[in-house]
Amino acid sequence: MQSDKKGARAYFDRVPAEWDALYAHEDRSRYAVNRVLRKGLYDRYRFTFDRVGDLSGQSVLDIGCGTGRYAIECAQRGAAKVIGLDFAPSMIEFARRMAEQMGVADRCEFVCGDFLTHESAGGFDVVLALGLFDYVADAAPLFEKIGRLRPRVFVASFPKFTPLWGTQRWVRYYWIKKCPVYNYHYEQIAGLCRRAGFAQSLVVEGKRGLLCAAGEGPF
Asked: Is residue 110 within 8 Å of 96, Cβ to Cβ?
């Protein structure tokens, strides 16, 4: 059996185009369908950009950037430097191509690597971790390292277990795709924020997951 991290990496290395299609707005008909069927993804997108505020001249780190949709959007909204980090090589290659197509490659750098071992130069104004903690068995080390970066705002998403959705998700990812998935709860996330040293935090609970903003606030 592969380790958890290798299982997740192997899965995401196979599906960049499929994954990107969930966010893509270039195909308007598919975008309209996804906004209905994948409402949670778009709620997360709106929450993120409502909380990060004005990105003009800001530096952004997107951990688990996938195909780069969030990172590219940050650059389009005025961020001066955006680094997207992901452990799946095909995701990084896809993100680089997307940044070129969107005209923001000069402000986006996509790096294949593990955040816990990656050496970054200096801090960041904004740190994102959207869809990352779903595949992380122990979130504490990541939170601690993010806290040391002292971002103005950190935004992350987390899945929570529900009998119907949580069970089918476990079967679909862990059993069929060999990609382990994890769930979180409100008190756990609030505790992680406190221990990471964030001055303020907001945790919002939805039907299938939780969204968190932490940092200087107010949120």
From this structure: yes
Distance CA 115, CA 118 (A): 5
Q: How far apart are CA 82 and CA 207, in angstroms?
A: 31
Structure tokens at 219: 């949120």
What's the token pair of residue 120?
A: 């970054």
- Cis before residue 218, ω within 30 degrees of 0? yes
Span 7-57, pLDDT tens digits: 555 545 565 556 556 555 554 554 444 444 456 688 999 999 999 999 999
For 4-215, CATH number out of 3.40.50.10490, 3.40.50.2020, 3.40.50.150, 1.10.600.10 equals: 3.40.50.150
User: What residue segments make up the domains of the chain, in order of their start?
Assistant: 4-215
pTM: 0.83
